Every structure is written in C-alpha cells, then in structure tokens.
Amino acid sequence: MLTLPKQVKSIYLSLSLSLSLSLSLSPSLSSPHHAEYYMHEAKRMKHRADAMVDKLGKAVNYVDAALSFMECGKAMEEGPLEAKSPYTMYTETVELIRYAMRLKNHSGPGARQEDKQLAVLCFRCLALLYWQMFRLKKDQAMKYSKALLDYFKSSPKVPTTPPIWSDSGKGTGGPPSSLSPSASALPLGSSPSSLINIPLRIHQMAANHLNITNNVLYSYEYWELAESLVRDNNEFFNYLNTLSGPLTLHSSIAHAVQYTRQGLQWIRISAKVG
C-alpha cells in the first residue's frame, strides 16, 4: 500500500484538487474542439516558453505546448481532412519534445528530481507518439510486407557457386592473384551470374516499410527509458497513477495529455517555475 509523508501528501492533494477544479471548468475538456483550437493553444504555450529564461520552465512549457499539438493531431484524425496530416503533426511534436529535453540534463550529477520527473513524462509521451504513428500507417506496412514477400518468393534465387580462389588463396581467405580488375571488384565468392538486380520500387517499398515498423522499436525503447527512471521517483509516479490512472502504451491521447499535464503542474509548483 502506498504511504506518503503527511506534508508531501497534503501538497499533492491540494495540487490535484486545484488542478481537477481548473480542468473541470476548462472548455477544452467539456467538449471536443477542432484542430485549429488546439493549434492555437499549442502556439500560445510555445511562445510563452520561447520568452522564458529559466531552462526548466522553458522545458515544461514546451512539453505543455506539445500536449496541445498531440490533441491537435488527434482532432485531425477524427475530423475532416486537414492540410497537414496527423502523422506529420505527431512527427513534429516528437521533435519539439526532444528539443525540450535537450534543455535540461536528467542523468548528470547535478540533475534535480524535477528534471528526472520531466524526463519520464517526456519519454512516455514520445513512446505513445511513436506507437500512434505506427497505428496510423499500420495498414500501409501490411501492404508493403505482403508485396515484398510476394516479390522475393517469385524472384530468381541466387545460384550457389564455389569461391573463385586460386590455389595460393586456399585456406587463407585471400583473393586470387589472377583475377582481372573487373572480377576483383565482385564480392568474394561471387560471379557476375550470381548478382540480382532489385527494382527501384522494391528498394523504396522496403525503405518505407522499415520507416513505419521502426516506430514500434522507438516506442518500446522510449517506454523502457521511462521505466528505468521511474524507480528513482516511485513516490511521485505512484501517486500520479493513483490520481490519474496508470499510463500504458495503449492509453489514449486524451489520457496521456491529462496524465502529463497533472505531472507538469506538480513540477511547476515543486520547482517554483511558471
């Protein structure tokens, strides 16, 4: 069972109550808005961060702006077609969070608890963003995968040929001295007849497939980075989980935004930043 010092518990409780009240009165949570509304809020928070001097304050406000960009991306998914795609919006949000993280060192000897707490929130947002980006293009990835499998199943197989070695090269791995310049440029053990030309469209399809599926790897990598830092801030995140509900890789954007904003509010108060 989670136990907190009375002073810490009262601080968190008062913060959560004030934040819950402000959130319940916020028009952004009472009804959904168009993407333009969230874009306006995101730019407002970003301009506020631009004007700040304190690095932690800047980072916190940039992340807060990123949360509105996340909401904007989700509104784009659910609303009519926009000039900018949700995928592009999430990609640009990833870059903003990365920039915010570069402002504060969370792993050095001088890192404060608030720096580490912010890093956890950032890593979790990055993990959820990459997972969302994969989901948006999952169907395309499946099509690429099927097309690539079909191509390589039907493509001619590379013939097995013995290594082109001279007697003097046997057992040493050295190239034969009798090879002509054109032949010596081939990979060892290859002959002109064993090379296969892969069409450019297949190269492009494979690259696109890799870009999409890499989102899954990045998502898990950032989630694991967050988990490694949570151990140093169990009290903070256990109480945050109790109030907001645990965040997982399958949490909604709305839950991630609410969870992260709650954490940002505590960091602001604890570190005395705007």
UniProtKB/TrEMBL annotation:
Keywords: Nucleus, Phosphoprotein, Signal. Residues 32-272 form the AF4/FMR2 C-terminal homology domain. Its main location: nucleus. Residues 156-185 are annotated as: Disordered. One of its GO terms (biological process) is regulation of gene expression. It comes from the Eukaryota. InterPro entries: AF4/FMR2, AF4/FMR2_CHD. It holds the Pfam family AFF4_CHD. It is found in: Nucleus. Residues 1-30 form the signal peptide. Residues 175-185 have a biased composition (Low complexity). GO terms for cellular component: super elongation complex. Belongs to the AF4 family. This is AF4/FMR2 C-terminal homology domain-containing protein. It comes from Hucho hucho. The lineage of its organism: Eukaryota, Metazoa, Chordata, Craniata, Vertebrata.
